[in-house]
Please model this.
Amino acid sequence: MDVDRRKLLAVAPFAAAAGVGPSRDWLVNTLDQEPEPGPRVRLEDVTAVRNMFTTFQRMDVLEGGGSGRLILAEYLTQYVYPLLRRTHSEDVRRALCEAAAEQTYLLGWMAYDNGEHGTAQRYLIQALRLAEESRDAALGAHILAGMADQATLLGNPAEGRRLAQAGRQGLAHADSPACLADLWCLEARALALLGDKAAAARAVARSEAAHGRARLEEEPAWAAFIDVAYLHGEHANTFRDLDDADAAEEHARLSINAAKQQRRARRGAMSQAALAVAHLQRRDLDGAHAAGLKMLALTAQVKSSRCVETVEDLRRRMVPFGRHRLVADFNERASALVQAA
Model:
């Protein structure tokens, strides 16, 4: 349906209340249909799906959600979801639901990064239902982290916090320090926007403690990029929202350096934006301009509406500096980039 009805789904609204009852059967009625004719699904079929997840996840991280989303939607529609309607043993069924949940989550994340929030929310809810069928608590918590991130970004930090807390509660039945670090990180983001400075700082500390225990080689494939570049980038945003410019700069630089080593332009762009805002909070327009230009260069390398939104956000934050030549220069360059996006 995503492939055939993209224009309709693109304007589907995001609804914060939709996350309250994410197990609604009407979103995944394929799980309740009678099996279709065909050979039984084997574990080898599930392995093939998992291998494709790794490919698409790396495409998203390095090139942005707008690059491969429709290709992944086609793959899910034509290959993965039909497998759910075939016959399987119970262990294969759970493994297949887990693999389908991973890819459905990734498809939702790509839509989210591409600015299609109503579509993204529907995929994330469906992914959570599939994770429930697979009985993979850690994967369900990871999906709740994505839902929390989206809710907070769209101006619903209370809902974002609730979803992050639900994910942490789910991890009582699983062990994923990387996912726990992400959930504390996202709760910190929400708390910062809610104005609870002390609680946000504590959540950042707990995120860092959990990350200190994480061994990514022992984590699932979906946790591969819950790392220094990502976590410090999000911590920078937390402290930015708390008007703590020094802490925001410290975390932003750690993220920028890690992202550069991995050639992750999207993460580097967003962390350069956080660094630029930290400079603005100290009235350092020269530093903000320099970081802003690096952000523009990185944003041009990916297809990500989130990066474009950070460009617009920085333009708004420069308004108090009036017609300064550096502001004019940044605005001119930013306008060219936004028009080309």
